[in-house]
Amino acid sequence: MKTTRWTKAFVAVVAASLFATACSSSDDGGTGQAADVSGAQAVADQYEAAPTNLVLDTPLSKAPAAGKYVISIETPQPISSAKDDAIQQAADLLGWRYQRILMGTDAEAAPKAMDQAIALKPDAIHFSGTPVSMLAKQIESAKNAGIVVIADSVGDEPIPGVISTSLDGTAQVQEWGKMVASQVVAESEGDANVAVFSITDYPILNVFTDAFTAQMKAQCPDCKVDLVNQQVTDLGTKTPQSVVSTLQRDPSINYAVFSFGDLVLGVDAALRGAGLQDQVTFAGQTPTPDNLKSLKDGDNSVWVGFPVQILGWRVLDMLAREFNGDDLKPADDAFLPTQLLNKDNIEAAVLDPETGFYVGVEDYQDQFKALWLK
Predict the structure, then answer these.
(1) Sign of CA pseudo-dihedral 291, 297, 303, 309
(2) CA angle in degrees (0–180, nearest 5) for 228-232-235
């Protein structure tokens, strides 16, 4: 990759552009403005190397008390299970009791799971993905029962009863969108026609696609970005054909961006079947083990490293601070460690040898122990 010097002035310009630029899908006419390829490359270069620390560096005021009881509402995705496995490891270290309630897929699955969790009278309930507004009634009930609630991977601000929504929240996901867009602009040298595949029913995914689009327009005004919406039931079924049809309609598309890695399921085979496997480069956030394996096999794509185990430990870190009476702001402000993963640096990236998920920081458990005074 090319290397250029990062400047604070550029950060300020990009940050302002993200708020000033409309996040609609495509640009029908050229502006004649040159792409800021060197600026985009500077952003991408920041995230080439593997992270070495948790980013969060404020220790607890005292070691957490043992005996807390925490319940997670687990959504039916492999990455959710991997995160909760990590929470279990952290709970074992702290001497806390931990339980999962598996959430169904019907429209009322999340409220029903929350009601079930509240009835068990834990000290804290953790959920992810579900919009906070959908659980307002349950959150109020939990608050009245003295149960702490924490959410990750939602695009909402906390409401009374929820101590934090910052983990994999709006600010973090916006950063990931900016990272991926900068890589696309730099790699394409300002000549990108992008189809973004996402599920707009999930607000947190819209945070990613909006930030990606805004960064693209800020750095490459004449690059094209079009959003192709999918449904939850399309994963692995209709999405592969949707990608094929999109590329066939517009042969100039040279990037396919996915708002989460599971959307790629079946897409490779569909593109090969249509003879389109060389038309586009893949990019996105929240890669699956299969996405990362493809990188190891030489696939020319780019993914944002999503440290699922560290996210799990950060959930308990936030709860430990709350139970201690510590200030949550240092943890709310600290992003997750991450990097841009590609075929050139994937071999040096820290992956979980058992699950294949991205870890990022090899000694993260020891670093948490230091923060927790354990």
Answers:
(1) positive
(2) 75
Reference 72, options 369, 312, 357; nearest CA is 312
Residue 195's beta-bridge partner residues? 226, 256
Q: How far apart are CA 62 and CA 60, in angstroms?
A: 5
Q: What is the DSSP letter of 201?
A: T
| Model pTM score | 0.87
Q: Coil, strand, or helix at residue 269? A: helix
Question: Vertex 125, ends 121 and 130: CA angle to 5°?
Answer: 135
Structure confidence at residue 232 (pLDDT):
84
Cα–Cα distance, 214 to 208 (Å, whole number): 10
- Token duo for residue 163: 């101590």
List the strands of the sheet with 124-128, edge to edge. Answer: 97-102, 69-74, 124-128, 148-152
pLDDT in tens, 40-50: 999 999 999 99
Taking the CA atoms of 279, 285, 289 and 292 in sequence, report the sign of the dihedral they define: positive
Residue spans of beta strands (DSSP E) within 157-243: 193-198, 224-229
How many CA atoms, within 13 angstroms, populate the side-chain half-sphere of residue 240?
13
| Close Cβ partners of 241 (under 8 Å, ≥ 6 residues apart) | 270
Amino acid residing at 95: G
Contact between 90 and 316 under an 8 Å Cβ cutoff? The reply is yes
Sign of CA dihedral 26, 30, 33, 38: positive
Chain centroid, CA 191 distance in Å: 26
Tell me the C-alpha to C-alpha distance, in Å, between residue 168 and each of 62, 114, 131, 272.
26, 20, 13, 34
Write the pLDDT tens digit of every residue in 194-252: 999 999 988 899 999 999 999 999 999 999 999 999 998 888 899 999 999 999 999 99
In the numeric block, which tokens belong to residue 17?
């552009």
Cα–Cα distance measured from residue 355 to residue 359, given in angstroms and rounded to the nearest whole number: 10
Average pLDDT over the chain reads: 91
Q: Which of 163, 94, 104 shows the shortest CA–CA distance to 130?
A: 104
Q: Is 216 exposed, middle or buried (CB count within 10 Å of its CB: 0-12, 13-18, 19+)? A: buried
Q: What are φ and ψ of residue 302, in 5° steps? A: -140, 135
Q: 3-state class of 24 per DSSP? A: coil
